[in-house]
Amino acid sequence: MKLYVGNLSYRLTDAELEEAFAPFGNVLSAKIIMERETNRSKGFGFVEFESKEDGESAIEGLNGKEVGGRAVVVNEARPPKPRTHNGGGQRKRY
Hints:
Keywords: RNA-binding. This is RRM domain-containing protein. By secondary structure, the chain is of the alpha+beta class. Helices cover 20% and strands 32% of the residues. A hairpin with a 6-residue loop joins β2 (27-34) and β3 (41-49).
């Protein structure tokens, strides 16, 4: 089960995120999303558990609780929205 974790401290590391979720079950991965240009945290990340039960336990145990000095938002991750190609490319000139 993959979880979305929001309102993370910008100083939190992947290892610290994993450590916060480890008491709830077998963490397969913990990744904080970083900005490409600055390599700074975007303030959210994802934690993946081996089982749905462990993920649900983590939601119940950590949603609204303090992790790294901030009250985090924890819920089940939704699949990413399909990307649209709005802008960024060259316009056709007629």
